[in-house]
Fold:
Amino acid sequence: MAMKLWGDPKVSALIGGPFTPELVRARLEREIERMHNLGFQYWPVFLLDGDLHAGCAGLQPWGNEPGVYELGFHLRRDFWGLGLATEAARAVIDYAFGTLGADALIAGHHPRNRASRKVLLKLGFVYVGMQLYPPTGIVEPIYRLEPNPAWTGAGRGTVAVS
Structure:
């Protein structure tokens, strides 16, 4: 599953790829280790109807600001444009604020990735500036989301993030 996602040059092009099988394996091992050590990772995303692997969504530590995590999502090409990134990100946001008690979430995207920008704005993230993304060497827009008591929950129920 990980190879079909991160091994796809079109999926990984804007996040520092293409990735070799060895780099995909190392990424997967880092995610599993993060879950064991911190209680979060980039979890696989599956369609509930048919149990198809659609991608991943999750969290990773962010800088030196305690209680602030970075949100990310990557989808396989077959699932682009279906609203799954928004739904999966909502589930992760619920986990971050509800279970982890996060103070805020940060997210960024490659400047050419308009779809990710649209998802972040739809989720309520607010643009806060530009920052270098080391895997690509590109300065990218960064957004922040604070906890909101009116948060609507995990979405329509099309995907499972587990």
About this structure: Residues 5 and 76 are 5 Å apart (CA to CA). The chain has a mean pLDDT of 88. Residues 21-38 form the longest helix (18 residues).
